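SEQUENCE-TO-STRUCTURE ENTRY
===========================
What this section holds: a protein sequence and its matching fold, both as plain text.
Tokens: labelled as protein backbone structure tokens, with as many entries as the chain has residues.
Question of interest: how does this chain fold, as expressed in backbone structure tokens?
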Amino acid sequence: MIIRRFVSVIIIIALVVLDQTFSFSKLETPSVPFDNSIKAVSHRISNKLSESEQTQKADYILNRFLKKWEVAGATVAIVKDGKLVYAKGYGYANVEDEKGVEPSNLFRIASVSKLITATAIMKLQEEGKLHLDDFVFGEHGILNDTIYSHIKDSRSKRIKVEHLLRHSAGYTSKYGDPMFVPLAIAKKMNVEAPIDAQTSIQFALSRRLNFTPGTRGSYSNLGYVILEKVIEKLAEEPYEDYVQSHVLHPSGIFDMHLGRSLQKDHFTNEVNYYEQSNAVKISAFDGSGKTVFKSNGGNNLEALGGAGAWVASAAELIKFMLSIDGDDTHPDILSRKSIKYMTTPNKLGRSPIGWMGTRANGTWWRTGSLAGTSALLKHQANGLSYVIITNSSTWRGSDFTKDLSLVMSRFIRSVKQWPDHDLFYHFEARPEIIALDKLPIYEDWS
């Protein structure tokens, strides 16, 4: 009888403790502000979850590669059949403080941003707010505001949304990429630096097109900057807000943002960026007269926006890829019809939409390159897809993404058996990010 009463008391005490622990509504007002970023998968995991004997050779391959190219740090995420089986950082997020890269670190993804912008456009089409055949400029265009009414070349009024998506709107970089010569444009337009995206578009409209829209293709950052303004006009809200609420959050992504030009304005979990040893400084984009590195004030990320300014972790970037892959292993935010259209070049052989290249066998890839960063997102038909991003650039420039592709092929081949876990649904009790006053956030980890 005494033993039975003792057991009963123990059970009651345990139930009281559990009730106090999990009845979050009874908690006192948090002493630390609630942190929504803990929803992000990248904030719920650490490097140690991807460390194993099976991946030691892969670690060696990538570390040796980074050392060879003098790359400070990199982040990698790998999915197998829809599961996040690997997410790990290499090298340094901050060389000066010897701070290592973790899955939670944000990196500039450069032109991989175009895939996000393209997805937002397709989402607007599915919402019935535009059609890819819609004109962009002129009295019958989406951007028919007076600020875009001074058009020198009448062919600009024939630019359609799809032309911008497929880099066939008539813009080229024959005289320099307009998104990377901000001081020259400020002088031509007789305005003070720093210029905004609107000024870059007005400058383009004040010049003749290099070819008739739709007749051929030429890679254009400006085209995707214009698409950002199309999204803002039709969504009736800022571009970043629309993308986050209609594209990223529905995909279970909560820590992707538009980045900023200056290191002092970076996000707290964003890496520092480094350029090759012989990199030259240029005049700051803001007209201050300072001489700076391109990666820290030389390039105008605020104006680049939807063409190349997003920052992301590898884990969340690959989660975004899964939301537009047409595979049932992970919910998609676009219809299969839209996804197929995005990954299919048009009849004139123009680029796929958002992606850099696609093959009929299901291999799709998107690259990104800026001073201080290189990124590669690759979707493979065998169910094993990956992201790799670095926080350093090399003398190879944009061609460095080819080297990233080669090393990742070796990296993946070296692993004979991937873990069976799915880090998308993992919650690691990490004291630096978890406290009782930050726990009531289980509503969406999908």
Observations:
- The chain has twelve helices and twelve strands.
- The chain has a mean pLDDT of 89.
- The CA atoms of residues 1 and 7 lie 10 Å apart.
